[in-house]
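Blinded run. Sample ID left blank on purpose so nobody reads anything into the name before looking at the predicted structure. Input follows.
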Amino acid sequence: MQFLFMALFALGIVGVDQLTKYLTVANIPLYTDAPFLPGFLGLTYVQNTGAAFSMLEGQSWLFMLVFAVMTVLIFVEYFKHPLPFTKLERWCIAAIYGGGVGNVLDRVFRGYVVDMIKTEFIEFPVFNVADCFITCGCILLLVHLLFFNKAFWKEEKK
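Blinded prediction complete.
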């Protein structure tokens, strides 16, 4: 049952991500700024053909391969060989996966990822909702694994 709730959570992330991307494409001309939270966040429609910060531009096959491998690993880990992840860590994995699905859908159907969130208080590349879930999920997962889940790092005694 927990897997179902995590899958629904990931689908919700995909839905919100795709909705924000649709609204961006429909309402903001390419490379045009739109005010959102003045002095904090703005909106800018950017087409990103790379990964984070446009690295590996044009390497969609690599992103698809990584995503396919991650999908297989999640199912194998959850159903065949569970690791000692906590519930929080599994929710983080669902957030990362949901963000990944959102960006993969863009790559498949558009050939690029729609980015739109622009920080105005610091110089930072434009990103999207999926990127937020991927980044926050990764950070929280790593922090929790490193500092709070001692069982994850213990070797099984045979």
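Unblinding after everyone has recorded impressions. The chain has a mean pLDDT of 90.
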